[in-house]
Amino acid sequence: MTGISLYLLAITGAVVLLVVIDLVLPDSQISKYIKSISSIFLVVVICTPVVKLLQGQISFQDIWNYDDYVLDQNYLYNTQLKEAEGMASNLEVLLDNEGYKNIDIIINIYPNQTTMKINTIFADLSKLVLSGNSEHINKYTAIKELIVKYTGVEEDKIIIDG
Amino acid sequence: MKYSIYMLYPILACLFGLVIISFSFSSDLQVNAYSDEENIQDQLDDTVTEQLGQIDLSGLQEYLDRLDYAGQTVFGSTNIWDKINQLLSGDYQEGIGTFLSTIISVLFGDFLELLPILCTILAIGIICNLLSSFSLNNGDNSIGRIIEFVCFGLVIVIITSLLYGLLDSVGGVINNIKGQMDILFPIILTMIASVGGAVSVGIFQPMTALLSNLVIQLFSFIIIPLFVFCFVFVIVGNLSPNIKLDKFQKLFNTIFKWIIGIIFSIFSSLFILQGIVAGSFDSMTVRAAKFAIKSYVPILGGYLSDGFNLVAASSVLIKNAVGFTGLLLLFGTIISPLLDIIIFSLGLRLISAILEPIGAQRISNFLHQIAKLTNYLITILLAVGFMYILAIGVLMCTANIL
C-alpha cells in the first residue's frame, strides 16, 4: 500500500473508532473527557504527514526529474537536404549570371542539427564556360568570393575541382 | 502630305488597340498562368504527401482506437490519417448536429445507467428516516443512531465505489493526455525546426516537457490525492455529528484550489509570453534569409527561393493539421468522462434535494457535499485539457511565416 492509502486508512480507522466509542459510551461525567482525549488523538493522526514532511521523510525529487523532447532528426535532415539542394541550385544560377556557366555545386551538410549547417561546398568546374569579360581574371578566387558572399561560409569549406 | 501622316495616327491607334484586346482575351496566356498555379499546387501536394509519409502517428491511432463511440464521433473519424488528409485538402466540415445529438444521447444514456443506483440511495435514505423515527417513538435514541450509522455506511460504500470509478477514469484520461503529448509535441517541434524556427524550438522544448512531465505529475501525485483527502474528510466529517472536521475539509479544499490556480496561471502566462517572443525572433530570421536569397539571385531568385518554400510550406501545413488533429483527439478523450462526472453530480444533487424534505438530513447534506466535490474532478480535467489546448494553439501559431 502506498503512503497516501495508509494515511487515509489511519484517519478513517481513527474516526470509525471514535464513532463506535461515541455510540457505545453511556452518558456520564467521564464521557466528555474521553471524547476530548479521543479528539486529540484524531488530530494527531491527521497531522502525522506534517511531522514527516518536517523530518524530510517525504521527498518530491522524482517530480522534478524529466528530459526534454527529442526532435525527429531523420525528418529534419531530409528537409535540410532539400534546403541545401535549393541553395546549390540558386548558387549555380548566381554564378551563371556572373558569367560562370555550367558549374555543378554540391552542398554537404552536418547531420543531427536543428538548423542547416554547411559542412563543405563542392564546386565542379570541369564543364565551366566563361563568358563576357571573365576570361582574364582568377576564376577560382572570383568563384570562391561569390560563394562566400552568398552562403556566408568560411573559404576553407569551399572545395573547387577542375 | 501633312494630312496623310495625321490620318495614320487613328489607324495606328486602332491597330494597337486590336493587339491589346487580342492579348487580353488570349486563352493561351490564361492557360499558362493557370497551368503554373496548378503545377505549384501539384508540387505542394506531392511534397506534403512525401513529408507526411516520414511521420509516425501510429501511437495517436492507438489512442483513437481506445476511445468510445462518443469520443470517436467528436473526433469525426476512426482513422488519424483520414482526418489529417481531410484537413490538408480543406474538406474538413464540422458536424455540429451530429456532435450535439451524440452528446445528448450520451447524457441520457449515462443518466439511465446511474438511475438504479440513485434509486437505491433514495430508498436507503427513506428507510433510514422511517426506522429512525420508529426507534425514537419507542424512546430509545441509541438504536436510532445505530440505524442512521448503518444506513449512512451503506450510502458511503455506494458513493465510494462510484467515485472510485470516476477517479480511475480521470486518472486514465490524464495519462492518455500525457501519452498524446509525448507523441504530438516532438512532431510539431520538429516541423517548427524544419521551417527555421530554431529559437522557438529552443524555448518550447523545455516548456512542453515541463507541461507533459512536471505539470501532469503535479496533477497525478498532488492534486488528485488532495481530492481524495477532501473526499475522505467529507465522509469522516459526516459519520458522527459529534466529530467535526469541517475546517480540515475546507483547508484541503483551499489548498486544492490554490495549487491548481497557481499552476495554471504560471504555466499559461509563461507559455504565451515566451511564444510571442520566440515567434518574433524567428520571423525576423526567416524573412532576412528569404530577402538574402532573392537579393543575391536576380530575376529568377524569387522563383527559386520559392522552390525551397514548398518544403517549408508543406511543413507548416502538416504542423497545423497534426496540431488540430491532436486537439480533436483531446476533445474526444475528455468528453465521455466529463459527461459522466456531470451526470453523477446532477444525480446526487437531485437525490439530495428529494431527501431533504423527507427528513434524511444527514444523508442529504452528505450527498450535496459530494456533488460539490465532484466539481473538482471537472476542474482537474478542464485545467489539464486547457493547458494542452493552449500549448498546441501557441505551437500552431508559431513559425507560420513564409
The gross shape of chain B turns out to be elongated
Kindly report the CATH topology of the largest domain in chain A: GMP Synthetase, Chain A, domain 3
Tell me how many strands of chain A there are: 5
* Strand composition percent of chain A: 5-15%
CATH class of the largest domain in chain A: Alpha Beta
Q: Could you state the CATH homologous superfamily of the largest domain in chain A?
A: ANL, C-terminal domain
Largest sheet of chain A: 3 strands, mixed
CATH architecture of the largest domain in chain A: 2-Layer Sandwich
Give the rounded overall mean pLDDT of chain B.
81
Oligomer: heterodimer
Beta strand % of chain B: under 5%
Give helix % range of chain A. 40-55%
Query: Looking across the biggest beta sheet of chain A, what order are the strands in?
Result: 2-3-5
Model description:
- Chain A has 162 residues and is of the alpha+beta class.
- Chain A folds into two domains: 3-64, no CATH class; 73-161, GMP Synthetase, Chain A, domain 3, CATH 3.30.300.
- Helix content of chain A is 55%, strand content 13%.
- A three-stranded mixed sheet of chain A has the order 2-3-5.
- The radius of gyration of chain A is 40 Å and the shape is rod-shaped.
- The model of chain A has no long low-confidence stretch (mean pLDDT 81).
- Chain B contains eleven helices and no strands.
- Chain B has helices at 2-24, 27-52, 58-66, 69-75, 80-89, 96-137, 141-195, 198-239, 246-296, 301-358, 361-397.
- The model of chain B is unreliable at 26-34 and 297-304 (pLDDT under 50).
- At the A-B interface, helix 1, helix 2 and helix 4 of A face helix 7, helix 8, helix 9 and helix 10 of B.
